[in-house]
Amino acid sequence: xxxxxxxxxxxxxxxxxxxxxxxxxxxxxxxxxxxxxxxxxxxxxxxxxxxxxxxxxxxxxxxxxxxxxxxxxxxxxxxxxxxxxxxxxxxxxxxxxxxxxxxxxxxxxxxxxxxxxxxxxxxxxxxxxxxxxxxxxxxxxxxxxxxxxxxxxxxxxxxxxxxxxxxxxxxxxxxxxxxxxxxxxxxxxxxxxxxxxxxxxxxxxxxxxxxxxxxxxxxxxxxxxxxxxxxxxxxxxxxxxxxxxxxxxxxxxxxxxxxxxxxxxxxxxxxxxxxxxxxxxxxxxxxxxxxxxxxxxxxxxxxxxxxxxxxxxxxxxxxxxxxxxxxxxxxxxxxxxxxxxxxxxxxxxxxxxxxxxxxxxxxxxxxxxxxxxxxxxxxxxxxxxxxxxxxxxxxxxxxxxxxxxxxxxxxxxxxxxxxxxxxxxxxxxxxxxxxxxxxxxxxxxxxxxxxxxxxxxxxxxxxxxxxxxxxxxxxxxx
Length: 478
Prior knowledge:
By secondary structure, the chain is of the alpha/beta class. The chain folds into three domains: 1-41; 67-275, Rossmann fold (3-Layer(aba) Sandwich), CATH 3.40.50; 280-465, 2-Layer Sandwich (Ribosomal Protein S5, domain 2), CATH 3.30.230. Helices cover 23% and strands 24% of the residues. The chain contains ten helices and 22 strands. It has a nine-stranded mixed beta sheet, sandwiched between helices. It has a four-stranded mixed beta sheet with strand order 13-14-16-15. A hairpin with a 7-residue loop joins β10 (245-253) and β11 (261-267). α7 crosses α8 and α8 (368-380) packs across α10.
């Protein structure tokens, strides 16, 4: 006899299943999202063989001309995608509310229409008149750009049949509902059905499809995890609300690298690509200022220069403040401990503030040396020599560790006019016997017109730049 149906419970946010009801999802930790799901009979179905749609051929005979990259009209987006839009590709663009996802995709749709490729923009969050107002403001009105305001999957598929677009933009996939499927639009079952139907149409009709996705409080893509698996490309659109600077990162890409980053400037007149964003993160000081140092960080495969600023002030509090903006607070605490233990810089009775310029976020350890130079310079009131960049990871023993892509970082700094790079010493390289100021340093290797100075530890680096006093005795050790 067949087994009785088994009751299961499923989370409406992420699709997690459990044998009994719980108040909090064990996967996404959402409260009140676990509901009773359809029961399973436990029987095994057998599927008979059916006719194939296309005969199997040797892989060498498969044509690749139909899947060639097509420029989107936005160079920074093409950089992230690996060359442009691929016919039949499904792209998922996720980001926080108000970051500029709709503005970016409307610009892509307009640029595609200007290239005489028919484009269909389906909006489920706004009315057609609201999108038209944005298009008037950004200059995106074109005869080849079709606009439809729909929230039903069947109506969207009908629009695709009638318009036959080359590019399809759906804003957003959580607002489209499929009739005959349980759940409300945005639920796990609905999102899976809508995404599967749109991806199926994209593959069969060779339509480039871009889906807009919502994000949760922790920044992950809302909906079932299968949504990220069925698409070809997953992009994250991020940026600070207090800044016009926006970045697009590729989290998954079947047609190109996943370590590329695109930079954009969002303004009232629309969104524009920023091909050289370094100037946004570096201040142009006419004179040397204490407590500043320029670091070279890697955003994907693109080197970016960012200025790190430090401020040190005396305090009478028993617990001095350690405040960061754009930097990791734990990295600052570690750098301060190294400066005290191995460089003799006592900051236990001082407040320390560290920040970046222009809202840049420095998360990689390669910016440790620049942070140490900025804090030491602020503590002693001594400016960093002009035209110097510093890069290197600081260890707990005070040593400097090598960083990746060092030639690319040096080349970018040289292109922007910097002339001295303070970097970790290579293995087997001999440490300089006499530490001098960088303006009167002994002959050192020159790369791309820059003097590259290798130092073994952070103490030597600070003495090389003369941002700290010479120590007559070793710092106190525990």
